[in-house]
Amino acid sequence: MRILIAAAGSRGDVAPYTGLGGELRRAGHEVALATSDAFAPLVREAGLEFRALPARTESEGGGTPNTRELMRAAAAFVTELGQGFADAMARGTDLLLLSTTTAPLGWHLAEATGTPAVGAYLQPAGPTGDFPPVVTGARSLGRLGNRMAGRLALRMADRLYTQAVTELRRRLDLPQLAPHAMRRRQEQADWPVLHGFSSTLVPRPSDWRPGLDVVGTWWPYADAGRRLPADLENFLAAGPKPVFIGFGNMAAGHGERLTGIAVRALRTAGLRGVLQTGSAKLAADGNDVLTIGDVPHALLFPRVAAVVHHAGAGTAAAGLRASVPAVPVPVTADQPFWAARLAAIGAATAPIPFRSLTAERLAEALGRVVRQQSYARAASAAAQHLATEDGAGRAGRSRPLSG
Asked: For residues 190 and 209, is the Cβ–Cβ distance under 8 A?
């Protein structure tokens, strides 16, 4: 079977699908991953076919865009994404696997071509009383309020896709259909969605509709022969376990501020540190601090005492997998949600919002998370649970994919 996985966004929104795709390929399927050109090497390294999707470009010009400008830019991007998705699918597909971002477009392509489609989500998007929508933060509004907020979040997303859906259906010679009408159709049909995160962080809500399943984390493809750089190995061997500090593709333009905060906090807490440069471009040198580039979390995290990160879903899970406690510093989007989930299971300190981060707050949190063993015990318990899950394997064996 020819399976096309469609994903858009940052590295954290794409990399998990290389692990899922690799498992499906080992099961005998031909697997392609459609995403932006920046991730072509990642896709091909995993042995998957790469198909190009448009990439979101940063707006130019000075000043900070307002909400209306951001929404307009996002709507323009998803419109372009829809057209590129149609081109990618034209190369032959027997089954579509759709991310949260690509599903509102993929439903229409599935209708036009008669191709079956399955959701492959990295975040819980279905409304539930258990927690508020992941994009609105971590504060509960009560069961009724959470569900109402969840429905409202979906309607806001529908509005974002209106232009894209109109143009895509015109191209596909389909009658007009509003995004919210298509979403309602999928919900009424119990459209299947597989969620690639661990139930140790988000147990399946009991009030979810049928068809929504939590299968376990999809770990990014990892080359079995890859090793840590020699300078990093030497640093790790030269003293006590360091603390990892990195913000992934977040915090661009804040490198000088974040580097200063990180170094002062580490030295105040009496800890060594490994700084990952990332989009923020962290950079510091010294006997007690090392700056690194991109290295697999699976290789590094088991060698550190704690991780300070932006609480992206993949980084949060990678820390737990390594039995390492965290100090989450969420920046935006779903990161406050995952940060709160880490704290709720005891594997992390209370989140420090990015805008509130100071050297003093970080040093205090690091002192607690490294020296109070309760955090490490909670992370270790979560790691044991993660070890029992086979997210990619369960997805491949699920009825939507196995037939």
From this structure: yes
Which CATH number belongs to the domain containing residue 292 in this structure? 3.40.50.2000
97 beta partners? 5, 118
**Rounded to whole angstroms, how far apart are CA atoms 75 and 336?**
24
Take residue 191 and report the two structure tokens written for it: 């459209």
Neighbour tally for 291: CB within 10 Å? 17
- Predicted confidence (pLDDT) per residue in 149-175, tens digit: 999 999 999 999 999 999 999 999 999
Report the alpha-carbon distance of residue 121 to residue 180 in Å, rounded: 19
170 and 247 co-located in one domain? no
Instruction: Residue 372: give the domain boundaries.
Output: 230-387
Same domain flag for 271 and 336: yes
Q: pTM for the full model?
A: 0.93
266 & 376 share domain: yes
27, 113: one domain: yes
- Among all chains, which residue has been given the structure tokens 């477009």? 105
* E-strand stretches of 205-310: 212-214, 243-245, 273-276, 289-292, 306-309
CB count in 10 Å sphere of residue 47 = 13
Q: What amino acid is encoded at 219 in this protein?
A: W
178 located within any domain: yes
Q: Please give the helix or strand (H or E) that residue 118 lies within, else none.
A: strand 117-121
As beta bridge partners, residue 307 has: 244, 326
Whether residue 247 is predicted with pLDDT greater than 60 in this model: the reply is yes
- Cα–chain center distance at 173: 34
